[in-house]
Amino acid sequence: MPLAKSIEAIRADFPILVTTVYGKPLVYLDNGATTQKPLQVIQTMDELYRTANANVHRGVHRLSDMVSERYEAARETVRTFINAPRREEVIFTANTTASINAVAFSFGERFVGEGDEIIISGMEHHANIVPWQMLCERKGSKLKVIPFSDEGVLDLEAYRNMISGRTRIVAVTHVSNVLGTVNPVKEIVAEAHRHGIPVLVDGAQGIQHGTVDVTEIGCDFYVFSGHKVYGPNGIGVLYGRAELLNEMPPYQGGGDMVANVTFEKTTYNELPFKFEAGTTNFTGAIGMAAALDYLTGLGREAVAEREQALLAQATAGLSAIDGMRIFGTAPHKVSVVSFLPGKIHQYDAGMILDKMGIAVRTGTHCAQPLMERYGISGNIRASIAFYNTEEEIEALVNGVRKATEMLG
Ligand code: PMP
Questions:
Q1: How many CB atoms lie within 10 A of CB 228?
Q2: Is the shortest distance between the CB of 177 and ligand 1 below 6 Å?
Q3: What's the rounded Cα separation, in Å, for the pair 151 and 159?
């Protein structure tokens, strides 16, 4: 399936891609950390500030009305993008981290007690570890961790055996930000649901690489960040099943989340507003919707196909370098390659690549337990987007080879 635009036209949509770094053309391969923004997003936000800025849900005046309509239309765009059953099940937050913390706190307050258990996996980002640990500390509950193989595949047998009568929630990543593994979230959900246990899926690295259908996955919560899906920073999504969200207490109090306030008693607003206290990042939500529309316009499956081709090229090229270790060789992966060439330190190689204009991530990628699992202090990660080119992948491979020779 071809992309709706040529690669040249796509690259022209992303103004930053023509930047030079130390006089070299920028090769941006840090898309897992954050993605670049197309003009369609930049212009939407610019136009909003120029012509329609007013506080959302707060006024009877025309501008406030217009912004409120666009904010709610953005919610509908998100709903369609992830195929959520109902619009009120889409809550705007600051990012993935905020969404997970909201669930860990609010769900935890209502449903988790002393001696209860929470299951996560060994390949989680810190954002899907620490909020659950904090909950365990507050409540005296216990964290259980699904192990994974050297290839980066979750051990589902261990997962099945881990579920007990005390398990209250399962929280797993859709896609590992280090290994690129696409986890069998539908299967994980089905197993948990057989025991009546809800599942949160961390979609921070899942949402941008093809179609995501929360109804098909069957998960109870799905969370992601705008900035990783070609949208602005400071906006995120918490999708949650209404039945659960209605049972959960709000985790922040303030304006907009209330129905009626007196000093004696306050009643809360309905979904989604119950979980959107204060002035939300409405500009961000509208900008993110423009990004989702952009991806839909390109063709999400075509995006995934192009990225798979670039991933195959990068994996083959890097693997051919002497002493190369690739972390994450699961059969079902997105376009992320983590690697270490020989005994070279990741920072040294990263610095040399930077001088060549090549932007990759080095370090633990906010997944320290995963690094420990492999007995390494960190690695280099190239995360590829559809706007990257074959020439850029070649530049990465040549750059890594050169860095390896230099550091010998
Ligand atoms: N989960 C995963 C899998 C991630 O890759 C990231 C970002 N690296 C996060 C959560 C946190 O996202 P954010 O910083 O946007 O909240």
A1: 24
A2: yes
A3: 17
**pLDDT band, residue 57 (cuts 50/70/90):** confident
Rg of the Cα atoms in the chain: 22
- State if pTM tops 0.90: yes
219 among known catalytic residues: no
Tokens encoding 115 = 């001696």
Catalytic residue among 98, 318, 366, 367: 366
Neighbours of 216 (CB within 10 A): 12
Q: Is the CB of 313 under 6 A from ligand 1?
A: no
Q: How much distance in Å is there from the Cα of 65 to the middle of ligand 1?
A: 33
Domain architecture of the chain: domains with CATH: 7-30+299-407 (3.90.1150.10), 42-296 (3.40.640.10)
Average pLDDT of the chain is: 97
What angle is formed at CA 212 by the lines to CA 176 and CA 101, rounded to 5 degrees?
Answer: 55
- In whole angstroms, what is the distance from residue 198 CA to residue 244 CA? 9
Pocket flag, ligand 1, residue 95 (CB < 6 Å): yes
Provide DSSP, 298-330: H-HHHHHHHHHHHHHHHHHHHHTSTTEEEE---
